[in-house]
Every structure is written in C-alpha cells, then in structure tokens.
Amino acid sequence: MRVRDNRRGCCIFLKDGDSPRVMYKKRTIGLYLTRICIMRVNRKLCFVVAVLVPMSFFCFHMWTKSDKVVAVWNREAPEDLLDNSPLQPLEKYAGISLKWKSEVLELLPKSNCKCEAETTLDIPFRQELIGKPYAVNFTASMVPLGIDETHKRRELEYKKFLMRSYSPADKIIVAEANSPLQYPLQGVEVRPLKTILIPGLGLLDLKKKQNYEVSLSCTLGTLNVAAEVDSVTIKGAGEKQITLSSSLLDNLNRQLQLVSYSNTVFNPNTADTVQFQSDGHTATFTIKVRHPTIPKLYDMGPTKSKYNISSLVTIATKTFLRYDKLQDLIDSIRKFYPTITIIIADDSEKPQKIEGPFIEHYIMPFRKGWFAGRNLAVSQVSTKYVLWVDDDFIFCPQTKIEKLVDVLEKTSLDLVGGAVREVTGYYTTYRQIINVIPGDKEGDCLKTLQGYHHIIEGFPNCVVADGVVNFFLGRTDKILKVGFDPQLSVVAHLEFFIDGLGALHVGSCDDVVVDHASKIQLPWSKTKTDKEYSKFRYPKSSHAVTSQHKLFYFKNRLKCMTGN
C-alpha cells in the first residue's frame, strides 16, 4: 500500500501487517530522506546559479560593448579651401571703385590649368645643352573607348582620398572684429578618447550686464568642468553643448578656465571644431585629436670620430645583367669604405653570385623592375640613412658620404642628393622644382623646372629643391614611407619625388660627386650582355612611357605635364 504525504509531496510504502509504530518510523525516515534530497538539489541549483549569473553578465558586457557604432567617415567631403569671395565684394562694398593689379592676380591660383610648352629660341644643340620645353597630355595615353569609365573610377577614388586626408583643422576660420570672446587660435591638442582643459577661454566686459552667459559646443566629444565655481550656473555638463552663466564676470571667467573637452569618437588623426558663443558673438576654433608621433631613433653607438659611416649608412643599389659594372662599383666603394654594408637587389634571369664581406645579395623574379628593386633594397636597410647609387657608378675621392650625413644631421632635410660626373667631365645634379597647379574635374597640371628654391645656410654648396639625381642619401624611415611604385619597371625616377611632394624635404649638394661609368661604346665593341641589357633597358615600343602616363593620370590625378 502507498500512502502520499501531501505536505511534503513524497510517497512511502507500507505493508498490510505493519503496526502503527512501524508505520510512524517509516514515515519519519521518508521525510528525513526527502529533506536530504531537497538540500542536495538546492546546493546544485545554487552552484549553477552562482556560475551562470556572472557568466551571463560577462557575456552581456562583451556582446554589448561593440554596440556603439561610430561613422569612421565622420567628416564631410572638404570644400575648396581657396576662398574667392574677396574678389566678389559684399553688397555694401559693391559701389566702391578699385583698380586690379594683373601682376598679383597672375600669381593667385586659378580654377583651371593647362599645359603648354613655353616658346623659346630654337638654337643648335639646345636639347643637349639646356634641354627643350615640352608638354604632355596624359589623357592621350588612355584608350578612347574607356576614358569616361576610367575618369569616373578615378573621381570616386579621389573623393575617398579627400575624405581620408581632410581634417577640420584645414578649414579657414575668420575671427569676427571686436568680439568679447577670448579663445585659443591654435595649439590645442588631445589624445584620442582622452580629456584636456581648454586653455585661454575668457569673456571681456564690453558692456555692463546684469547676467553673463556663454555656451560651447563640439561634435566629436563632450564638454564638462573640472570644478564648479560659486555663483556660476552650469547646464549641459558632460554633453556636446555646455552653457555657463553668472552675474559675476570674474567668477564666470574662473569657470571658463576649468572647462574640459573629452574626445568620444575615436580617430587616430583628426580635429574637432568647437563653437564659443555669447550674446550674438560666435568664435570657432579647432582641437586636434591625434596620437603623438612615436619617435624612431637609431643608436649610433660610442665612437671617437665625428661620424661612424659604417654604422650610420647602408649603400643600396639595383642591378640587372651588368655584373661587370656592379663589381667595379663594389671595388670603388671598398677603397673608401671597406666595412660599409652594400645591399643589392637583382632581377637578372640567371643571377650570378656576388661574394664579399658586408654584402647582401637579394634575388628577385626575372625583370621584376626598377622601382620594385628599390623597394626591396631599401626595405632591408637597418641603419639611420641609406645611400642610393646606380650599379654603374664609381666612387672617387670626392664621394664624401660624411658631407651628406653632416647636412642631414644639422638640418631638417629628409634627403640630400649629390652630383654625377660623366666621363666627359660634365656633371649633373638634376635639381628639379615640382609644382602641382590646381585644375578642374579633368585633373591637375604638373609643372617641372630645372632649378632650386634657395641655398642652405651653413652649407654654401647645398640648396633646397624638390627632386635630385639618382645619387642621394636619405633618412631610411622617410624613404620607406613614400616608397617606390613597383608598377614602374623600366622608366622611372622623378615619380618618386612626385609621390614624395609635400612629404619629403629635399636638398642637393654639388660638392659630393660620384663618377658615372662611360656609356660611349663603338657598335662593334658591344658584348652580348651589353646588347641584351640595351634590349630591355631601351625597348623599341612606347609601352613603358604609356604606362607611366596612365599612372600619372589615374594614381596622381594629373591631366598633363610640362617641363624642360
């Protein structure tokens, strides 16, 4: 017989012959066992709850942490920074007469550009002696049927580039006259997602008032105060807009000294625009938001001499087939710098082994190219500076690397070129001035001229330019940042300096000279290697030049080029 205990919800089994005392004992034992089972179940349940609840909160925290969605394109496409409004007078100035100065107007940027070769006297041997002006239209290198589609793709990429590179700090801000607002014009900077006090905020008492009120607003962060000054009312603390008011001007100005800005939208390098307003007056200033530039320092080690060239400089070159010329270069280097490291990038079809101390020889795929070889060679440099030389150069007593090092150590230059001397005694520095003239939707115009900007103080033989010859010493990290476009495999040099325009501070010294192996050869004296090299180096087709022009058109968004 089974009897149910409704109070406990359990069952016990009783026999027909059991006495009341036995039945009572069995029931008591049953109740005891039931309590034990319930206690064990409760312990397990508590353990499960104790584990699952914290885990649930942890998972919820991790899953919800990424719910904050930020538009990385947090800035609008930039407007044209050239403001032509001064040429168009305001309505109240429309009746004022003036006289335009053409010599100044010609210097101002135009809304369009075009490339035309300058007209010059056509004298004998002009091309060989001083060069001849030329103009190139890059659109002519494009396939006519695909030019429209290519143009659309280029403009789309250009728009993305502008949105990546533009900063609100680039925008022109004009301060109103007689404003009672005091604020920082420049120099305010905060680390991403960090907080600073905004310096220089203040309000002048141009007219006595019973109550003074100011407000500040931003877009990429929040505004708050580090302390609350007596008799100052604060609204919007911790938000994008904060308002401060007080009947006591001194108290309000003390409060303005304690206004903080916290960046809340992460971007490693941008700027926030802050508006400062009071009684109809508005001032705008920017706060730069960026990480600090991490230094990349080189330990030159203890040295008794002024410069230990072997620990400061690595020589890099690119070779193709011309192993006899390369060996002459190495032998000449060892006469003056026996322990300097030489890095060689080689894309010959059947590479020969280059042996010797302090030589690193890197083999590339066959005909990988001129600029690809430069990239490989420079990428392996571990010294502060890299000296680039062609494989047919020859060091001479005037090849003083120390002079070039001295220039870079004592100036802000990133790269300094020397001079290359031909067997005829003529030498060139190939100093170039490079200008990009604003254009229209078809692209900008590139203008190159032989020349330089100015002489460098303390170095009378050195000048500042935009491009130099194929013999230069540069800061390794700076050259790596610009890089060499591997799409340029045969015809390339000036392209590196065009890509580095605005990023590289370039100089040139004509008192540091390297010799150029003679290129004068009689037709019957050319070896099989010479003929094979000429076939690849000077191809009959214009494919290399056409590819170069296509890169100028699309990658650099240039429509044409003029030069000498």
Count all strands and give the number: 28
Integer average pLDDT: 82
CATH-assigned homologous superfamily of the domain at 309-431 and 464-543: Spore Coat Polysaccharide Biosynthesis Protein SpsA, Chain A
Count the helices. How many? Answer: 13
Helical content class: 25-40%
Q: Give the oligomeric state.
A: single chain
Gyration radius from CA atoms, angstroms: 38 Å
Which term fits the overall shape?
globular
Shape-level CATH architecture of the domain at 309-431 and 464-543: Alpha-Beta Complex
Question: Main β-sheet, in a few words?
Answer: 11 strands, mixed
CATH overall fold name of the domain at 309-431 and 464-543:
Spore Coat Polysaccharide Biosynthesis Protein SpsA, Chain A
Low-confidence stretches: 1-11, 57-66, 70-75
Q: Quickly give the structural class.
A: alpha+beta
Task: Measure the end-to-end span.
Answer: 117 Å
What proportion strand? 25-35%
